[in-house]
Design a protein that fits this description.
Number of strands: 8
Oligomer: single chain
Strand content: 25-35%
Order of helices and strands: HEHEEHEHEEEHE
Largest sheet: 5 strands, mixed
Strand order of the largest sheet: 4-2-3-5-8
Shape: globular
């Protein structure tokens, strides 16, 4: 399976494991079940935007919810909301439910909730609804170089 995410990892020489799904997952819980992993190891990527059209990708552990107010305060933005589906595809090149913090159409500021760094391995989207990717958290952090902060509700 070739996606922008898998091609990026291969180009960077990063070891990863493709975890195929039997059916497309609609929720983090379904994706974790399909992949046979703990939902805490899942990295959920949420595209946020402020009133000026500035976008940032906020990543939180699977079961958690991103708090746009905390992200806004961190970046000194005015009102921040989740981007709509058409924005997500236009900005990231990936559809909602398949967005990962790597393999994006263009670079974006990345903020990871600090709890992600407590896992040895994490699961990100492969860029396709039918598979996920497991990789070492250390590798993901090196590739993304995100800001680490408390951004969960």
């Amino acid at each position: 399976m070739q996606t922008p995410v898998t091609m990026f990892l291969e180009k960077e020489g990063v070891e990863f494991r493709l975890l195929p799904h039997n059916q497309p997952a609609r929720t983090i819980e379904e994706a974790a079940r399909e992949r046979g992993v703990d939902p805490e190891q899942m990295v959920k990527s949420i595209l946020l935007k402020d009133m000026s059209g500035f976008h940032v990708l906020a990543c939180v552990p699977g079961p958690a919810q991103v708090d746009p107010t905390k992200v806004r305060a961190l970046l000194g933005c005015r009102r921040m909301t989740c981007a709509d589906a058409s924005d997500v595809e236009k900005i990231t090149g990936l559809v909602i439910g398949t967005v990962a913090p790597i393999g994006l159409k263009r670079p974006l500021p990345l903020i990871f909730d600090h709890r992600i760094s407590q896992q040895l391995k994490v699961n990100i989207s492969s860029g396709d609804r039918m598979a996920g990717i497991e990789l070492a958290t250390e590798d993901l952090l090196l590739l993304c170089d995100p800001m680490l902060a408390d951004i969960c509700r």
